[in-house]
Amino acid sequence: MAGPSPFKMRLVHLDLKGAPPRASYLSEVLPLFHALGATGLLIEYEDMFPYEGHLRRLRARHAYSPSEIAHIRQLAARHGLEVVPLVQTFGHMEFVLKHSTFAHLREVAPFPNTLNPHDAGSLALVGAMLDQVLGLHPGAQWLHIGCDEVYYLGEGAASRQWLQQEQNTKAKLCLSHMRAVASLVQARHPATRPLVWDDMLRDVPEDQLAASGLPQLVEPVLWDYAADLDVHGKVLLMEKFRRCGFSRLWAASAFKGATGASQALTPVQHHLGNHMRWLQVAASGPADTLQGIVLTGWQRYDHFSVLCELLPAGLPSLAVCLQCLLHGSFGEDVKARVENLLGMPGLDVADIAREGAGSFPGSDILALVTQVSLHLRDSVDALLERDRYVTGWFSPYHRRRKLVHPVMVRHIQPQALSLLARWGALTQELEAALGRVFYPDAVEEWLEENARPGLRRLQALLRDLDEAAGPVDVAPEA
Q1: Are 127 and 184 in contact (CB under 8 A)?
Q2: What residues form DSSP beta bridges with 286?
Q3: β-strand pairing of 142-144 with 193-197
Q4: Average pLDDT value over all residues in the chain
Q5: What is the pLDDT of residue 346?
Q6: Which residues lie below 8 Å from residue 317, measured CB to CB, with a gap of 6+?
Q7: Most buried by CB count within 10 Å: which residue of 46, 47, 102, 213?
């Protein structure tokens, strides 16, 4: 399969709804993206876009400024990277619909994920968002309008009433909103072509899809992140979409963020397998059927979920996947190129946990995250749950009752203090490294989720030990 890439466009997805990188870090990694074989960026701004006017409340605390977005676009252009903005317009609207001002536009009142397609205010809202985003992306060839995972569609009061009418279906309802959004883009920004995720279209009957008018308005992005994706099934889906009138199709793989909502380290072999399967898909269909591929790098599964792998932690996977796509395979020669570009000798895609390896931007974060993820929790568990002195003489029973043999303090306390000092120092080092790449809220979240629970367990043990070591005033319980 080795040879020129079947994917002319190779877009790296920047998911900014969690741990958005500072613009200064992007200035370091965009040259690397280009060197690895990327041709563009799919930037999912979510609440990091500097919305104005009545949309201003959508901004995150550290949202990019208009000048920062202009700077990012200039950096991308300098390194030959096409910028494609992504704005959710149907599902995954939590960052909008969580606000009381827009809650009346929810499809189902308690849930902020899906927009009500029946309310005229919904299209007005989407139109305002798209106009502002494209206003800061003049000349954008493509705009991704999302439309994936439109959960609870058809379950709102207005939808239930509409579905009672003869021949109305959830599929028609979905197609109608997509068409309305795409038509709005076409009318206001005729030089920009909308992209949509394909999952809501996969099971729509061909006749409905062809008759909807949607194939003339959008380009579907077929996404599948599985290491063992069904190549034949994907080819059949592409053929279906082509028969329905879609002239251009895209693929979407994943280089991180697709193997666990709280994943901290990226399983490179999984993602390499995913890209090898996409190469098989491209080779099995007519030439140039796929316009390009989006290498997604999810940072949260949705607006309310925890952070998954941070961008620096996913860069070795991105490098492997981009080079695999660029060369059509991943042999020893391609592996050597990746090692050289990352400054990461001895790359092992089956075991990427190489502490201290790499000289790429953010490699220090990967090394520290690896230590915390693989060793902090285990070392604390080893002391609290497997150390014979702790389990035998300072069990939860003893800790609750402040009981300890004085001799055992000498066995337990030094170990706990040493462990706390080691992990406390490493956590401080990681906090400083993260602060150079991310904003304070992302740094705080990652440490709170991944590092500080272990430190607190050690601190609690030492506190209980100190209290138990004091004078005993009462006889122990029977």
Answers
A1: yes
A2: none
A3: parallel
A4: 95
A5: 85
A6: 255, 256, 266, 267, 268, 271, 272, 352
A7: 46
- DSSP for 29-98, please give it: HHHHHHHHT--EEEEE-GGGS---GGGGGG--TTPPPHHHHHHHHHHHHHTT-EEEEE---SSS-HHHHT
Written as one letter, the residue type at 407 is: V
In degrees and rounded to multiples of 5, residue 301 shows phi and psi of -70, -30
Using N-to-C axis directions, what is the helix angle for 332-342 and 311-327, rounded to 10°? 140
Helix/strand/coil for 283? helix
Q: CB under 8 Å to 51, separation ≥6 — which residues?
A: 57, 58, 59, 63, 129, 132
12 membership: H or E segment, kind and range? strand 9-15
Radius of gyration of the chain (CA): 26
Residue 102 DSSP label: G
Q: How far is CA 78 from the centre of its chain?
A: 25
Say which range, 164-168, 424-428, 430-434, 446-450, has the weakest mean pLDDT: 164-168
User: What distances in angstroms separate CA 85 from CA 142, 262, 359, 459, one per listed residue?
Assistant: 8, 26, 30, 45
Rounded to whole angstroms, the Cα distance separating 34 from 39 reads 7
**What residues have CB less than 8 Å from 242, skipping those under 6 apart?**
249, 289
Amino acid at 51: Y
Residue 275 has pLDDT above 90, yes or no: yes
Whole-model pTM: value is 0.95
Please state, in angstroms and as integers, the Cα–Cα distance from residue 446 to each residue in 141, 142, 263, 352, 427, following that order: 35, 33, 11, 20, 11
19 vs 300: CA distance, rounded Å = 9
Active-site residue, 149 included:
yes
The whole-number pLDDT of residue 359 equals: 93
Task: Name the DSSP class of 126.
Answer: H
**Got the DSSP string for 404-459?**
--HHHHHHHHHHHHHHHHHHHHHHHHHHHHHHHHB-HHHHHHHHHHHTHHHHHHHH
Q: Is the dihedral of CA 168, 172, 177, 181 positive or negative?
A: negative
Choose the catalytic residue: 28, 149, 155, 429: 149
In CATH, the number for domain 9-356 is 3.20.20.80
- What does the pLDDT look like over 175-226, one tens digit per residue? 999 999 999 999 999 999 999 999 999 999 999 999 999 999 999 999 999 9
- The predicted structure's pLDDT at residue 90: 98
Which pLDDT value is given to residue 5?
84
Asked if 186 contacts 134 with a C-beta cutoff of 8 angstroms, the reply is no
pLDDT at 354 exceeding the cut of 80: no
